Structure formats: structure tokens, C-alpha cells
Amino acid sequence: MASSIRVDNIYAGYGSVRVLHNVSLNVAPRETVTLLGTNGNGKSTLIKTIMGVVRPTSGRIVATIDGKDYDLIGKETEEIIDLGVALVPEGRRLFPRLTVEENLLLGAYRPTARARLKDNMAYCYEAFPRLAERRSQLAGTMSGGEQQMLALGRALMSAPSILIVDEPSVGLAPLFVSRTIDMIAQLKERYHLTVLMAEQNFTQAMRIADKGYVIVHGEIAFRGDSPEEMQRSDLIRQHYLGM
Amino acid sequence: MGQFAGLLLDSIVSGVLVGGFYAAMAVGISIAFGMLGISNIAHPALILLGSFIAYVLNSQFGWDPILVGVLATVPFYFLGTLLYSAYEIAFERRGTQLIRGLAFFFGLLFITEVGLQLVFGVDYRLVETPYIGPSYNIGPVSLPVRMLIPFLASVLLLIGLQVFFMRTFTGRAIMAVAQDKFALQLMGAAPVRVKRIAFGLSTATAAMAGAFLIILQPVEPSMGRDYIGRIFAICVLGGIGSLPGTFVAAVIVGVAESITATFYGPSWSPAIAFGFLLIALVVRPAGLFGRA
Questions:
Q1: Least CB–CB distance from A78: residue in B169, B176, B189
Q2: Could you tell me if residue B125 is inside a domain?
Q3: Where is B132: in which H helix or E strand?
Q4: Given CA atoms A20, A217, B185, A186 in this order, what sign does their dihedral have?
């Protein structure tokens, strides 16, 4: 069954600093939506707000998971994960002193995921052969690209229906960026995911996105409902394509 | 076999046996300090509390101390969860646990100790069981049953805990919680709950270690202090948070102490334990089995 996320008129920030102003965003079932914006414009804050880390001052965030609506505001991060939302966070946040395999196993912590542990693990190792080779290596000792694969694999182990990825390209060599982006598309197909991806790399993000939002100074400055519409936007041409 | 070799072999064997018991004492610290980052220096006092519970039930009803140790893990587990909740609300949540948390456990150490002194006085107490007296002799080596039983029970305790940490979701979450709290939330686990369970387990091990202690030797309430340095040294030597490391380090320290006591006199034993620690920290800072 299909899952989606709706963010309506969110205002949020840290203490007296308001970061997000009236942000609304919609990720429809099985869609890949990209949230574009350069550093400091509120991408990560929006993701943190969705994940229950930052509490908004007003607005609504509703996740529809397998046809059922859940109000995400006021829920703890772990409760949101438990519903079937997975986040690949900025900086990956692996457990550096656990092995690759232990990291993956922890990904399957939520009860729904435990039942599918074997299948998902087998798929992870098939999709990321490097992880299979390094299954007993400590996660902290791997290269950035390998760590990003592990972060993706670990998120998948939770058998999510909604996958949120925060800046997968940061700190990676160009080759790994495009591999990671391809991988997200592949995983989406395989698991029928609904994907929200924050990125600054417009070209890479648009390769797999159905829709996009541009966030500037904490406000949605542009919404493009198709890749073509995104490409045609003056804002994007100026800021991201240097035209 | 020469007299020297026999003496050496005997002291190695008794060192291994005592080392196994040290591992049971240290494993609680290994979990609390190594996995959770909580410097629970009251742990040895809680071990003494375990010893006195074994003493009371043994002297009043004739219960076997090992049995008491196993049964007492249940109330000790809940005591641990309560202690952690208090610690979490008062310090960890506010980020003041480093110094104030240490003071909290210092306080707990003294309260437990003084409480035991008020109830039992400062005399040495002991338990009576059929296996305290006998001893097997194999050549020059003597295997006192009062040492053999705590050793075997310690090995079982550590194996059980290790299986729990490696094979269960909660166990793995405990190993991860100190590394990245937010990442653990992203796995769908509540860090405070995970830590509460872990601290409960850590405290529960004190019940068993206490029973082993009073089988090995008579106890008095402030005796736990003698062990604080030694068990922290074992945890660091073994590698923070590693149970196999804790066991191996405990045996090394036990054997080193035993050999030193046999050939140079017992007063040198602590120096040897800490000497090993220093060497280990220079050669391998993460400890023997540490994940660096």
C-alpha cells in the first residue's frame, strides 16, 4: 500500500531563531521528491522537524502509511521510525565501533523489520557487494563512499515505506555521488518507496526526481511538478546551473 | 616436577580461578562504564550488598549462596533501573553527569556501605555450604571447590551476557547507545529505555558477584573499596565495553597477582595489576579487545 508525507504551513526554528517560514511540501505515494537548497537555507531543519527532532511552533505534518494517517508532530523520533519512515541522516551517523553487519542488524530494530531481516540483509549484500566483503569490519574504518552505502543499507533494513535522505552527496567523490543517487532510485523501485531527498547537487538530484522544491531562507521559493518544469525555472537556472 | 614449577603451576591455577571471579565483579562496570559511559563507582558497594543478602539468607534459612545470587538478580535489576532513572532525570538529561553523576555514585557508595555497617556491624561475615571446605588435588595443584564454583558460575554469567549482547536486538542497541544516541533513535530505539535496561543488567551482575565474593572469603561492609581500582583497571585493560576482553584481562590480573603473592609477597599484587594496565595502555591504548 502506498505511503506519503504532507507538510502544511510549518513554522520552526531553534530557540528564538526562526528558520522555517510557512513551509508546505507534499510527497505523494511512490514519488521521489527532491528538496533543493544551498547550505543554511533550512533543508536539514525541515527534515529534523519531520523526524521529530525540532518541534515546530505551528503547522501540521501528516504521514500516510499504508493508507493510515499519522500526525507526526509531538512524536518522538523513534516512534516516527517505528511507523515505517527511515532517515539517512546528514553525516551518515553510523555506529563507528560496530561492524558493518552489526550496523545493518541494528537497522532492523523495529518489530516490523525483524520479520524481514533475512531477506533484507540478503538484498543489502547483493545490492552492495562491498558491504558483504567488509561485513566484519568496523564501520568507522571504511571510506566515505562505503559508509554512505552502509547508511543506505541500514536505512533499508528497517523495511521503510518512506525513505528520507539528507544530502547524500556531501563529502563524496563525484563517482560515488552518482552511484549513490542511482542506488536510491534502484532501492525505491525495489521496495516501492516514497522518497524525499534533500540535496544541493541539482544535476544529480534531478536525474531521479519526479518533483522538486527549492528552499531559500527558510521559505519554499519554487515548486516544480515535473523535471521539465524544474529545468525551466529561472531561479534554478541562476542558482544551480549557473546560466 | 621441581618444587618451584609446582608452586608456579599452583599459583597460576589459583590466579585463573580468582581471575574468573574478578571478571564477574568487573562485568557490571564493563557494561555501565564501558558501554554506557556511566562511572558507577558504587558498583563494588552493591556487590557487598549482594554478599550480605547471601549471608542473611544463608545464615537464617540455609539457602545456597549461588542460588541467592541468581534470585537476587531480579530485585537488583529493578534497583538498577530505578537508579538509572534517577541519574538520568537528575543529571544526564541536563548534561551535568560528568562531575555530579560521579558525586551521585560516590554518595550511593557511602550510603550502601554505612547502611550495611549499621545493620551488620564491621565484623567479617561468612556463609556455610558443603563446598567451602573441600579441595581437589592434582599433583602440586590444588583446586579449592570454593574457588572453582565462583569461577565456573562467572564464566557462565559472562557467556550468557555476551550472547545477549551479540544476538539480541536490545543487546546490540546497548552496544551502540554510547556511540551515537541520535543514530540509535533513527533505528527506532529509545536511548533512555535501552540504557535503563543495560544499567539494570549491570546492577544485576552485582548480586551474583556478591554471592561469589562471600563464597571465596568472609566479607565486611567496606571491603568493596579494595576492588574499585582493580576492576576499573580490568575493564580498561580488556578494552572498554568488551566482555571477552574483560574476562581475559581479569584472568591476566588474577594470575599476575597470584604469582606475585606467591613469590614476592601479597603487598606487591596491586602494583602488578596496575603495572599491567600501564603497559597495556602504552602498547595498545584501546585495551586487549577494544574496538579502536
A1: B189
A2: no
A3: none
A4: positive
CATH number of the domain bearing residue B225 = 1.10.3470
Alpha carbon distance B288, B23 (integer Å): 14
Candidates A77, A105, A138; nearest CB to B186: A77
How many residues are given for chain B? 292
Residue of B180, B187, B291 with shortest CB distance to A109: B187
Report how many domains make up chain B.
1
Whether B290 is in a domain gets the answer: no
Distance CA A32, CA A29 (A): 9
Query: Would an 8 Å CB–CB cutoff place A69 in contact with chain B?
Result: no
**How close does chain A come to B174, measured CA to CA in Å?**
10
Chain B residues in contact with chain A using a Cβ-Cβ cutoff of 8 Å: 169, 172-173, 175-176, 179-180, 182-190, 291-292
The pTM assigned to this predicted structure is: 0.92
Specify if B25 maps to a domain. yes
Q: What is the DSSP letter of A145?
A: H
Q: Supply the range of the domain harboring residue B235.
A: 3-119+144-283
Q: How many C-alpha atoms does B132 have within 13 Å on its Cβ side?
A: 15
Measured between CA atoms, the residue of chain A closest to residue B174 is A106
What residues in A contact B37, CB-CB < 8 Å?
Answer: none
Distance CA A180, CA A168 (A): 7
Minimal CA separation from B181 to chain A, in Å: 10
ipTM: 0.93
**3-class SS at A104?**
helix
Residue B133 lies in a domain: no
CA B193 to chain A, closest CA, distance in angstroms equals: 11
Per-residue pLDDT tens digits of chain A, which is 243 residues long: 689 999 999 999 998 899 999 999 999 999 999 999 988 899 999 999 999 999 999 999 999 998 899 999 999 999 999 999 999 999 999 999 999 999 999 999 999 999 999 999 999 999 999 999 999 999 999 999 999 999 999 999 999 999 999 999 888 888 889 999 999 999 999 999 999 999 998 889 999 999 999 999 999 999 999 988 988 888 777 777 666
Which helix or strand (DSSP H or E) is residue A35 part of?
strand A32-36
Contacts of A160 in chain B (CB under 8 A): none
